Amino acid sequence: MTDVLPATARTLYARTARAQRDGRVPGLVAGVVRDGGLAWSAARGDVAEPHRDVQYRLGSITKTVTAITVLRLRDEGLLDLGDPLEHHVPGTPLGDRTLGQLLSHMAGATSESPGTWWERAPGTSLDGLGLSPADAVLPAARRFHYSNLGFGLLGELVARVRGRAWSDVARDEVLLPLGMTRTTPRPVPPAAQGWAVHPWADVRQPEPEHDAVVMAPAGQLWASAADLARLGAFLIGDTGEVLAPATLEEMVLPSGVDSGDTVGWSSYGLGVQVRRVEGATLVGHGGSMPGFLAGLWVDRDEATGALALANTTSGLDGGLPAALIADVKAAEPTVVGAWAPAPSPVPLELLGPWYWGPSPYALRAIPGGLLHLGGLGRPGRASRFRPGPEGTWIGMDGYFAGETLRLDPVALNLATFVFTRTPYDPAAPVPGGTCEWR
Predict the structure, then answer these.
(1) Using CB atoms within 10 A of its CB, is residue 247 exposed (0-12), middle (13-18) or buried (19+)?
(2) The whole model's pTM is what?
(3) Among 35, 126, 143, 219, which is least packed by CB within 10 angstroms?
(4) Distance from C-alpha of 52 to C-alpha of 49, rounded to nearest angstrom
(5) Tell me, what's the pLDDT at 418?
(6) What's the pLDDT at 380?
(7) Is 169 helix (H, G, I), strand (E, B) or coil?
C-alpha cells in the first residue's frame, strides 16, 4: 500500500474539513483506497483514535455484501439469477420476480417494508412483515425502483439456501475471508454514536439503533474505515477467494443504461451503484441510516477509491468520495503499464476494415486476447468479444453483448448481420443480394 504525497494529503484533508464544517457533521472519517487498503485517511470532529478502527453504520453499502452472498450461491450452482423468488422463498407477493431483478432493483418491489418505519424500530421476521399484493408496486422489469424490501428478501433467500442466518453467512463467506474483522451487524466498540443535527440550530439528539432482523441485509452492517477500504479494494478487483473476477465484472455492469452513448448517467448493477461522473465511471454505494451517512466509490480504471463515514442523519455532501478520487487523480495521475507486443488471437488477415453495408468498421485485436469491433472514422455499434466455443467469439458489452461472432475471410457473421471486406461485397452471402455501384 502506497501512501499519498504530503501535498495530496493536505488537499484531501482540506476538502474533508470543509465537508465536516459545512455539513455540520459531529464526526467524519474520510479515506482514499489504493493498493489494497487505505493509502490516506483522516478524521474531523469528535472521532476517537485510531479513527481507522471506529465503527460507523454503513446503511445500504450492506446491499453490496448481500449481493456477494447471493452471487456465491449462483456460482456454486445452487440457484440461477433467472429463478423466480418463489422457487426459494415461497409465499410472497413477489414470487414471480426473478433474483436478478431483485438484485438490480428491477423487480417492482415497494421501496420499504410494510408496517413500522423499519430503520427506527426493532425488526421482525418475514412472516411478521405481513406482505401483501400492495408491496408489488410496479410490474417486473418495467423500470428501476430502489427497494430495501427486495434486499431483505434476498437475505432471507441466502438464509434458507444455506440453512443459517444471513449475517452468519456474510461473516463467514465474505467479511472474514476479506479480512473485514471489524464489520458486524451490531456495533462493537469503538463505535460512533449516531446523531440527528437540528436543521435550524447547532444542537443534536441521539438516534436509535435496533436489530432489523429480516431487513438487516438491506442496511444494517457497521464497519470501520479500514474494513470499508478492503471492500473498496474488492470492487477495484482484489476479490481474493470470495468471488471470481468474472463475477465481479458481472456485478458492476450497469443495468438498463447504454454506457457508451451518454456523457453522464447513474445506474445500478448487481448490488452496486454505477455512475458516470466527469468522464469517469465510478462503482460503489451510498448508505444512510438514522444517525449515519456513508459512501464508498471506486474508479476501477484508476485503481483508486474513496470513502466517507459520518455520524449524522443528514447534511454530509454525498459527493465527497468522488471529489477525493478526483483530487488524487489530478495530483497523482496513474502511471499505466508499458505497452508490449503480444500475439494476435486470430490471423492478421482477418483484422482491419470491414463493412456493414456501406458503413465502415474495424476489427482489432486488443489486450487480454480479445477482439474489438467498432465504427471506423465515425460512430457505430461497438463491442468487445471473448473467445467462444468452436472458434466463435462472444460479445462482452455494447450492442452485441452475448451475441456470437463467426469469422470468415470473406464475411463476418454477427447476429444475422454480414460484414464484408468491401461495401456489399458481391462475393459475400449478403441477404437481399448485391449489384454494381453506380
Answers:
(1) middle
(2) 0.93
(3) 143
(4) 8
(5) 96
(6) 81
(7) helix
